[in-house]
Each structure stands twice: as C-alpha cells, then as structure tokens.
Amino acid sequence: MRALVVEDDARIAADLGRALSASGFRVETLSSGREAWFRGGTENYDLIVLDLGLPDLDGLTVLKRWRAEGCDTPVLILTARGAWTERVEGIEAGADDYLPKPFRMEELVARARALVRRAGGRAEPRIDLGLLGIDLNRMTVTVGGVPVAVTPLEFRLIAFLALHRDRVVSPTELLEHLYGDDDAREANALEAVIARLRRKLGPGIIATRRGFGYHLDMPE
C-alpha cells in the first residue's frame, strides 16, 4: 500500500512516516502544497494524509483541485484548526476523514487502514479468499489456516493484490506501490518477489496474465 504524507512540520512528517511504514504502507513525504497537488494528481496512491496548513498552497485548495480533476484517492485531513465549520468545509471539499491536531498516532493508523479497506470494498480488516487469509491490521498471511512467514515487502504485494482482486494489476502499478522513489523499480526485482511468494503460498494463488500483469486466482 502506497501512502503520500503532505506535512510541512518535519518532526510530524517523520513520525507519520515511521508509524505508517510500520503498519505496512510504503510512505512518501512532501512539505509543499504545490508539489503535492501535482504528485497526488498524476501518481497512484492508496492513501493521502494531508495537512491543511501548508505554506505555499493550502491543503483545502489542493484537495479541491484533486477532486475537480477526478482524483479519487482516499484523503485523511490533518489540521490544527479545531472549528467544526472548518471540518465541515474539509469534508464537503472531498475529504474522506478528518483528524484534528494533536492526535494519537494509533488513531491515525487505524483511520488510515479503515480508509484503504473501504476503498477496496471492505469494512473489516480480514480478507478471506479461498484458502488464503490476510489480516490487514496484524499484517499476517495464512494458507488453509496455517501461518505463512512473509517479509514486509511480500505482505504489501499480496495485500495490494487482495485489495484489487477484481482486476489484473500491471507490473508498473505494482512497482509504484512496492518501491519508493529512491529504490530501483526494475521488473526483475518484482518477479523475484512474486517467485518467493509463490513458493511460500503454494501454486494456484498468484496468477499471471501474460502481457497484462498479476491477479489472485482465488474464489471468495
């Protein structure tokens, strides 16, 4: 799962990055509203955490522009502004959730997970597809009820495929969600992760549609 954190306070941004990374997200951080407007509108994210008090282009304007341009990524607003009228304005502008500062990091992570689940068509944290079980909160995987030891990278991959189980996911999209901007986005690296997961999960779970990408070949 790929998350964009837009926060101009370096300490808060670093804390958010650590907390979300520990919860299975691949996190990118920005402090500029203008850069966030461009990145959020041109790249695919599973979640955006957006501070309203940005120095160059305020978060509410960024959000309105995203929604006007058709960006439907779930957005969790952070703000030090406490007035209920401003919360209503944020929700009406297209925010999916709203968290005033100061906040508990555990609550933010829980809200972030819930937004991603709902975007994937699920309210509960567990996904069961045939023999495959994935717990998005505990970041665990089972096959036939037996726990499977996976790395954080492997978990992000199988969870992303499960959340998008109704379609074939291209290698390019998977690479975007698995690796940050500073990592090598090479097809052979993705193929290596897929191969490791197939060995751990067994045959018939991760399927390849040649020329298109990967999908989970598991019944509900």
Automatic annotation (TrEMBL):
PANTHER family in the cross-refs: REGULATOR OF RPOS (PTHR48111), RESPONSE REGULATOR PROTEIN CARR (PTHR48111:SF37)
Protein name, entry field: Response regulator transcription factor
Highest taxon of source: Bacteria
Chain positions found as 4-aspartylphosphate: D51
SUPFAM superfamilies: CheY-like
Signal peptide range: none
Assigned keywords, A-Z: DNA-binding, Phosphoprotein
InterPro entries per record: CheY-like_superfamily (IPR011006), OmpR/PhoB-type_DNA-bd (IPR001867), Sig_transdc_resp-reg_receiver (IPR001789), WalR-like (IPR039420), WH-like_DNA-bd_sf (IPR036388)
Keyword Calcium appears in the UniProt entry: no
DNA-binding residues: 124-218
Residues covered by the OmpR/PhoB-type domain: 124-218
Keyword DNA-binding among UniProt keywords: yes
UniProt-listed SMART domains: REC (SM00448), Trans_reg_C (SM00862)
Residues annotated as domain Response regulatory: 2-116
One Pfam family of this chain: Response_reg
